[in-house]
Amino acid sequence: xxxxxxxxxWRNWSGLEEAVPRHVETPGSVEAVVDVxxxxxxxxxxxxxxxxxxxxxAIAAPEHTLLRPEGLRGILAVDREAMTVTARxxxxxxxxxxxxxxxxxxxxxxxxxxxxxxxxxxSTGTHGTGGTAAGLAAQLAGLEMVTGTGEVLRAxxxxxxxxxxxxxxxxxxxxxxxxLTLHVEPLFVVEAHEQPMTWxxxxxxxxxxxxxxxxxxxxxxxxxxxxxxxxxxxxxLDPGEQQPPSRAAAWWEDEVxxxxxxxxxxxxxxxxxxLVPRINRVAARAQSERRYSDLAHxxxxxxxxxxxxxxxxxxxxxxxxxxxxACRRAIDASDWRIAFPVEVxxxxxxxxxxxxxxxxxxxxxxxxxxxxxxxxxxxGGLEPILREAxxxxxWGKVHTRxxxxxxxxxxxxxxxxxxRDRLDPDRVFAxxxxxxxxxx
Length: 440
Fold this sequence. Notes:
Distance between the termini: 31 Å
Largest sheet: 8 strands, antiparallel
Shape: globular
Oligomer: single chain
């Protein structure tokens, strides 16, 4: 999954957003980033470091100068006493996972897609499910960035802690991240249990399953009463003792069914929406139970080759399942035909200022449509339900919120804006999207 850059046309992975920067550079050092930022500030223009373009919004869309991340990749330092790893900000998550595996190390948690750069994933609040920390930003130990004045600023719990407190989910609005230091732990094995389940049983036992598994992921197939539940439990197995699915089984489940067949069914549904409910019933009943164990990142991450558009909201955990039920009622009462499952995940409260899980246990509800499908009626119809429940939209996924109605959702929002004024007074890193969600 990556963004496309043909000539000077930038387009994100989903194809929803595109931009035509006037200038493109690939800095290979912190000093090169400083030089670009200072030149940009002197010229009174703007600059954006883009990642892989996996955000569904225009949060990384460049208006003047585009910085590519390829020159800022790789691990810089490993501290086994502190159990931290420092990597350049343009490093892709999948490359970090492999490098950590070779070092006998692992992140605590991650999402199910690993194509993003570290900077892009952290800056937009990318998260997994369950664990003691769901979000990548909550696993940060430190960061380095080039601010809008061209200063190289390092921040951690002990160095510039006021910046670290607010900048872990920075939206690309505070500076260009050049390196990130993450807490890691010894490489571990996860046992995965995937099983189909009915809607009633799944929701009735959701809390029990969440307590029993370290990581719980649930998928509801709209227009049906069927769920697929994935429970991942950390084991005491040593790396090398895991029992992954056979190559043939993994190919069949992850490539043929989850990507090939599912993609074909989505194309049929896009051309003949009336068939979607029947297709979903067939797809849901085709799901089978399986158990396997593997290294954590191999269990958490799954290949996603079917392109889509996505809206995701974090709602308070205590009302989350009721909100899911309300969304189902809206879908059932509508004429929408939804081919993609609705994904349900959880996160413990964290202390990251602009994290969607800041200060409260959260339930994540994610809604998808195929990339060639108009999402506006579906997402627009559900967003008021999610917003009314106190929902916070994922910063990298489709939503219509603005600074005026986002501010009440975050008690540190004003503090973040004040830090933005301090670190980027001339709005060197601004674009239309940030003007909408943060103000000018």
